[in-house]
């Protein structure tokens, strides 16, 4: 027995392995397609490339909601917006005039789960909608609407606390890609061509009309957005530099993701065609108002011990809140999978198989109650009362409704969404029955593998 114990203890002179450490680098309002690992042709993200070389990049990561509170609540709990409850409810939603509901009391956060295992969990967040219960489990939770450099100063300071040997989870939340894009000039790429006097529209004032967004305005807006991406990427670089300098980068779990994307007038015509009506002040710009690709598709890169799939691009659709069961499995924290609406991606990270699933998004902030299903490179967006359902091809530069040319696919994805809605309702204890055809459909979609047959 003594020999066995001796064999497990560190031998003389060797360092015991350090306690686990996790940094969640969460960039508010970051659409995937402005990042080079996601195909952008401008050099916005050299430091994210460094991280990708160390981990897996999920090419089709979708948010389960299009605005901060419900999306971040899912990201930090692993459950769908209709289960965690954080967000706006009712058939007509208007964030400007309604107070959102907070996180359901019986849904634990990742920080609570890790805290129960003895972790030191701390957060620095820059958007007041990262709250409403999301602070639960963090022993320190700083909310300050400030720039990314300050968040990274804090992150680097809190990576190690002298005398504190507990495992560490840091949430670093950055707001710089959100309106009004107040970034240092040095990060704006090719700021303006010589002689270009085009004013950058004041996006913080949403009163300009749809017609005011000329192609030149849109390009200027995206130039500024790319600059914001460069700025947050430079802060990621500071974190990577620090971890490389002290030799701890291989022992640190690093996750880079976002709560939702951002529209810059991509889908104005689509929304009009589908009969969407928005509150007076909402334009086809920003987020929270639709469930289209530019608002839902975000980056997801995961690196750390046990991640073998370094530099691997994972093509299948996953949801951002798959992160919670993934991290729990990587970190060896037990949980009941039935408590979550997400799936672990550890098999993918270990290079064993490719995870892909159908993703449902809902929980808008402005307008009717809509829902979207994302699967196999297509998205079906079902409108609320008086609004049309549209079928979209992922990555379609024309942003056109393909319903008329793909009638079979329209029916198929509609039936998928019905089945997933029935599953969600039955899990929440309603009397909804899932019929045998829906069961077969759900199994084919990657659901029901752990649910009671
Ligand atoms: Zn947000």
Automatic annotation (TrEMBL):
The keyword Hydrolase applies. InterPro entries: Alkaline_phosphatase_core_sf (IPR017850), Sulfatase (IPR050738), Sulfatase_N (IPR000917). This is Choline-sulfatase. Keywords: Hydrolase. The keyword NAD does not apply. PANTHER family: ARYLSULFATASE FAMILY MEMBER (PTHR42693), ENDO-4-O-SULFATASE (PTHR42693:SF53). Its EC number is 3.1.6.6. Residues 21-333 form the Sulfatase N-terminal domain. It holds the Pfam family Sulfatase. It comes from Engelhardtia mirabilis. SUPFAM superfamilies: Alkaline phosphatase-like. Belongs to the sulfatase family.
